[in-house]
Amino acid sequence: MFDSDHVDLLKLSPSERLLLVQDLWDSLRPEDIPLTQWQKAELDRRKAAYQANPAAGRSWDEVQRQIVERHD
What is the pTM of this model? Predict the structure, then answer.
Protein backbone atom coordinates (compact mmCIF):
# COMPACT_ATOMS: atom_id res chain seq x y z
CA MET A 1 0.00 0.00 0.00
CA PHE A 2 2.87 2.36 0.72
CA ASP A 3 4.94 3.54 -2.19
CA SER A 4 7.93 5.85 -2.15
CA ASP A 5 5.64 8.89 -1.83
CA HIS A 6 4.19 7.51 1.40
CA VAL A 7 7.34 6.19 3.06
CA ASP A 8 7.95 9.55 4.74
CA LEU A 9 4.63 9.20 6.53
CA LEU A 10 6.10 6.25 8.42
CA LYS A 11 8.78 8.55 9.79
CA LEU A 12 6.18 10.54 11.68
CA SER A 13 5.91 9.94 15.41
CA PRO A 14 2.96 7.86 16.62
CA SER A 15 1.20 10.99 17.90
CA GLU A 16 1.74 12.75 14.56
CA ARG A 17 0.37 9.74 12.70
CA LEU A 18 -2.68 9.66 14.97
CA LEU A 19 -3.31 13.33 14.28
CA LEU A 20 -2.99 12.66 10.55
CA VAL A 21 -5.48 9.80 10.79
CA GLN A 22 -7.87 12.04 12.71
CA ASP A 23 -7.51 14.79 10.11
CA LEU A 24 -8.15 12.31 7.30
CA TRP A 25 -11.20 10.87 9.09
CA ASP A 26 -12.57 14.35 9.79
CA SER A 27 -12.21 15.23 6.11
CA LEU A 28 -14.76 12.55 5.16
CA ARG A 29 -18.43 13.37 4.72
CA PRO A 30 -21.09 10.93 5.87
CA GLU A 31 -21.87 10.04 2.26
CA ASP A 32 -18.19 9.06 1.78
CA ILE A 33 -18.60 6.18 4.24
CA PRO A 34 -20.79 3.44 2.79
CA LEU A 35 -22.95 1.38 5.11
CA THR A 36 -23.37 -2.33 4.69
CA GLN A 37 -26.87 -3.79 4.40
CA TRP A 38 -26.44 -5.19 7.92
CA GLN A 39 -25.60 -1.73 9.29
CA LYS A 40 -28.58 -0.16 7.53
CA ALA A 41 -30.88 -2.85 8.92
CA GLU A 42 -29.51 -2.35 12.44
CA LEU A 43 -30.00 1.42 12.23
CA ASP A 44 -33.56 0.90 11.02
CA ARG A 45 -34.20 -1.53 13.89
CA ARG A 46 -32.85 0.90 16.48
CA LYS A 47 -34.82 3.80 15.03
CA ALA A 48 -38.03 1.77 15.13
CA ALA A 49 -37.35 0.72 18.74
CA TYR A 50 -36.79 4.34 19.73
CA GLN A 51 -39.91 5.53 17.95
CA ALA A 52 -41.97 2.79 19.61
CA ASN A 53 -40.75 3.77 23.10
CA PRO A 54 -38.65 6.98 23.31
CA ALA A 55 -38.66 6.90 27.11
CA ALA A 56 -36.76 3.60 27.15
CA GLY A 57 -33.51 5.28 26.08
CA ARG A 58 -30.99 7.30 28.07
CA SER A 59 -29.46 10.67 27.30
CA TRP A 60 -25.85 10.87 26.16
CA ASP A 61 -25.03 12.80 29.35
CA GLU A 62 -26.43 9.94 31.44
CA VAL A 63 -24.45 7.35 29.49
CA GLN A 64 -21.23 9.35 29.84
CA ARG A 65 -21.79 9.85 33.58
CA GLN A 66 -22.33 6.12 34.04
CA ILE A 67 -19.11 5.31 32.14
CA VAL A 68 -17.11 7.74 34.25
CA GLU A 69 -18.59 6.35 37.48
CA ARG A 70 -17.62 2.80 36.48
CA HIS A 71 -14.03 3.78 35.82
CA ASP A 72 -13.29 6.06 38.75
Answer: 0.53
